[in-house]
Amino acid sequence: MELLQDIVDEMVARFPVERAEAIARINWHWRGQGPLAPGSLVFHQTADFWADRIYHEDVYENGRLFQIPRPAPAADSGCWPGR
């Protein structure tokens, strides 16, 4: 799917990840949800939105919002390509 490839490209360009990790993060984010239908709400957002949402997590501390990098999926998670 073009959107997923665009998300991978955004993550590689903006964050310190390689393609395999970007794919693993996407797989982890949407694990267990089955194939994305063309009319899915996922397609109502841009690749840069999803790249940021998948890479970062929101943390609230002392009433303030921070975005920090999520840890990459574990090597044995089944999310990494070719593993």
TrEMBL record:
* Domain of life of the native organism: Bacteria
Q: What is this protein called?
A: Uncharacterized protein
The species this protein belongs to is: Actinoplanes palleronii
